[in-house]
Amino acid sequence: MNIGELAKRSGLSQSRIRFYESIGLLRVDRKPNGYRTYPTEAVLVLDLIASAQRAGFSLDEIRTLLPTDLEHWEHDALIGTLRAKVADIEALEARLTQSKAHLIAVIADIEAKPDHLSCAANARRVLSRLTDHDADHEEMASDDVRLLDKTHRRQSVKQVRTANIPA
Asked: Across residues 32-53, what is the average pLDDT?
């Protein structure tokens, strides 16, 4: 099938399909006139790529998972990789739960401003408590931050900026 038909069947743009081809995720045959010809299994491969990306796999991880021929899956390697991804997600969930609890505690601390303190003094009070507790909290890994960037980080920043939190 040609790239236009593959784009229609897969719901992906032709440029995305060419990109997957260029990085080795999608096999293509070239006719003598230079046109691309995709096998019928290309739709399935593109669906697998999209599903794996939604599950949090990087393109490099997907490349190692996809066999060159869909008839030759390495069952044990696939199961091992999928289980490792589940473990990664569970670890991220635990770190996110810890980060959420920390932020909720900071909000509560800010909201518990004694009446006799100015906003600036309250900010210093909260910041001093934060610096005392920072040594006790595990920091998020850079991979976690990149994953958050892809999902909710921008939305969370917007919510924090628009929240009515007294100083």
From this structure: 89
Bridge partners (DSSP) listed for residue 29:
37
The closest of 144, 145, 150 to 90, measured between CA atoms, is 144
Max CA-CA distance within the chain?
Answer: 82
The SS3 assignment for 146 reads: helix
Cα separation of 41 and 69, whole Å? 9
* Its pTM surpasses 0.70: no
> Which is nearest to 26 in space by CA: 12, 105, 34?
12
DSSP state of 69: S
Q: Which residue in this structure is represented by tokens 């599950």?
A: 55
List the one residue out of 25, 56, 30 whose CA is nearest residue 42: 25
Reading the block at residue 143, the tokens are 């991979």
- List phi, psi (to 5°) of 67: -75, 160
Neighbours of 149 (CB within 10 A): 10
